[in-house]
Amino acid sequence: MSTRAIVHIALFAALTAALGLFPPIVLPVVGVPITAQSMGPMLAGALIGARRGGLALLLFIVLVAVGLPLLAGGRGGFGVFLGPSGGFILSWPIAAGVVGWLYTRHDGAVPLLQAITALTLGGIGVVYLIGIPWLVVVAEIGWVPALTGSMAFLPGDLVKVVLTALIARGVRRAYPGL
Amino acid sequence: MTVDLYQPGHSVIHCLSPGLKVLVLAVVGTGLFLIRDLAVVALGTAAIVLLYRVAGLSLRFAWRQLKPVMWLLLALLLVQTLMVDWLSGVFVFLRFAAVLLLAGLITLTTRSSDMIDSLQAHLAWLRPLGLPSRPIGLALALAFRFIPVLGAITAEVREAQRVRGLDHSVLAVALPVTVRLMKMADDIADAIDARCYDPGHSGTVSPPRLPSAADGSPRSDREARP
Fold first, then answer.
1. Nearest in space to A15 (alpha carbons), one of A122, A46, A166, A25
2. Chain A residues with CB inside 8 Å of B92's CB?
3. Regarding the domain delimited by A3-174, which CATH topology (the fold level of the hierarchy) does it fall under?
């Protein structure tokens, strides 16, 4: 692994942490607080690719596990993963990997629609696919409450997908060679 | 800027090795999910709360572990009560509370730096499996350092965009920040390479050997000086 790869991995782990510092925005219609933090895996995948992006989020999880209060709301420590929303957070490395893999299937500029599709599949699809069954198993609630509860976060996640697609496009234009 | 959740102290729990504490958490956490007995889980929760006092922490700290997820736990309690019965609701509630309290206790009584040292020491065992422990150490250290740097860069860009009346536009702030970060990453990688860091070398670096009294070397530093 090159030094550049190591620095990129550290950078996106730190970026995901920094995104958790932004105050959560409460959506007017649904009333669910959304944090910018889940943009971390999307940005990492879109900008540094599947392998580096996945490792960056894995590093972020290690930093949280050792007790740094890096999750949105200042949470940290092992307990977060054992809690009800643990699956959503643990899915992030895979989400970043999937986003990165879908992004790198395109040479050069990724068309906006394809970018949004890639980010939706990785950043929402993978995260919900792991997070919701996790919630069902550890909280011993049925599929229906788990699914309806998670749907409240969908509008916010879609906003984040579009934002990430625009940011990634701008950065790839301004900084070729990614 | 990064605040450790660690609470200084000298209790027995503070002095246990980080590796042991994580092992205990893994065993107790798994145990709580295997045992389906309300009495055992309730006793376990009470014992963990008692451990906070053993660690010399006030029970406010115990409450602080649960407070951020309390609404979620109460929602689970409600769903369980409606779908099964209130006893299983209490069971699920207590099980989460116990695991979160124990994990919180470990976080409060262990410095993050000690946890990372312990992690790196254990990573060394995995080196035969091809896990590169030195790049992991470098990445950990860099990530630590980057978090406050990111905050500073974001503040700078926001200030610059405020002058242009753009500080409320997410894109006008996020784009320059990200581009600057990518540039910074390349500069740092170049700087590290310029200092002959070899990421491919995954063995431990033995420190330069210092002369010791046991060497019985005839030339000591004092003699070497005129």
1. A46
2. 139-140
3. Arp2/3 complex 21 kDa subunit ARPC3 (1.10.1760)
Q: What is the pLDDT of residues A106-124, one digit of tens each?
A: 777 788 999 999 999 999 9
Inter-CA distances, A131 with A92, A128, B56, B65, Å: 10, 5, 36, 22
**Residue B53 near residue B9, CB atoms below 8 Å:** no
Which chain A residue has its CA at the smallest distance from B117's CA?
A66
Q: Is B33 on the interface with A (CB under 8 A)?
A: yes
Enclosing domain of residue B75:
12-119
CB–CB of A174/B175 below 8 Å? Answer: yes
Q: How many domains does chain B have?
A: 2
Helices A39-65 + A92-104 axis angle, to 10? 140
Given a cut of 50, the residues of chain B with pLDDT beneath it are 1-2, 202-226
How many other β-carbons are positioned within 10 Å of the β-carbon of residue B55? 19
In this prediction the ipTM stands at 0.85
The Cα of A141 is separated from the nearest Cα of chain B by a number of Å equal to 6
